[in-house]
Amino acid sequence: MKLSNKELTILSVFLAIVIMVAGTFVFILPEYEKIEPNKNTLQSAKDEKNRLYASLERENTIDQEIQDAIDQANKFALYFYEDLTTYEADVIVREILEATNMSAKSLTLSDYAASELTVTDYVETMVSYPLKDFSGYDPGILNGANFPIEYDENGKLIVPEAYVEKYGDQALTEYLTAKLSTQAQTVGAITVTFTIEGTRGDFLNFLNYVADLDRATIINNTKVSYTSSANNDNNNNNNGAPAEGEGEEAAPAAPAGNGGDDVQLNDNSKVSALVSMTLYCVTPMQEQVFAEAEPAE
Questions:
Q1: Distance (Å, rounded) from C-alpha 248 to C-alpha 244?
Q2: Which of 53, 132, 244, 272 is deepest in the core (most CB within 10 A)?
């Protein structure tokens, strides 16, 4: 069948349209779909370039920044023990007891292990009931967890107004303490549990001595029993003779640990205490030495 010139023209135009449409779907549309991903890739590359440029700008100062960070970390480490063996922890505890005239009857040391250390933020437990609510009682206790961390346009921490009103110049410190209580830092620790004996005065000196230590030493808990009274011992030794200081104001009385009789307490009263104490450890960072490389010969 022979097509006329008009039919050939119409067929040619139709085939051209089909080819154009097919070419659009096969070649052009896929490229358009790549435009958005390519834009994202380009932006990521630009961001990476800017980051690299910023890093290059710090090339001349990065060594000093690292050294400054190490110096700050080592200042922090001064308030902790270096990594301890159980023997070293035993020596430290016995030196404390010797300095405070306390004697150890038993002593147990845990293995050296990692421990989480946090800033303590004490929040008093409050009880609410209708009569108390009606009275308008305001405990004045702030819970840091109720205040989200916010920054102003200059990037400075915003201290909640409630903290400013309550603590004044100390508002920032109190607020940071409350927020840091949720941030745990892992350090090394050895816990020592021991029973000690001595006088009431020496035991109080022991507590003060530990509280004044430069390195992180925390008494987790203690249980004290009064085993005897200096006044009672004197009375027994004197066979009923008046004790020294008779006629002066009497010392406070407390139940005896075992006998049930009243014991007159003073600094010479004998005590026995079960103590749990933890020594926290941080190893100082190694000093960095930055020197210009010697040119090769």
A1: 9
A2: 272
Res 192: pLDDT:
95
pLDDT in tens, 180-190: 655 677 889 99
pTM to 2 decimal places: 0.52
CB count within 10 Å of CB 144 equals 19
Which pair of tokens denotes residue 201? 């005065």
Q: Which amino acid is at 202?
A: D
- H helices of the chain, where? 5-23, 29-33, 35-57, 62-77, 86-99, 130-134, 161-167, 171-180, 200-211, 230-237
Tokens coding 117: 């250390």
Q: What DSSP string runs through 205-271? A: HHHHHHHT-SS-EEEEEEEEEEEE-HHHHHHHHTTTPPPTTBTBPPPPEEE-SSS-SEEE--TTSEE
Structure-derived torsion over alpha carbons of residues 235, 237, 241, 246, reported in degrees to the nearest 10: -40
Rounded to whole angstroms, the Cα distance separating 243 from 233 reads 10
- Pairwise pLDDT comparison (243 vs 8), residue with the higher score: 8
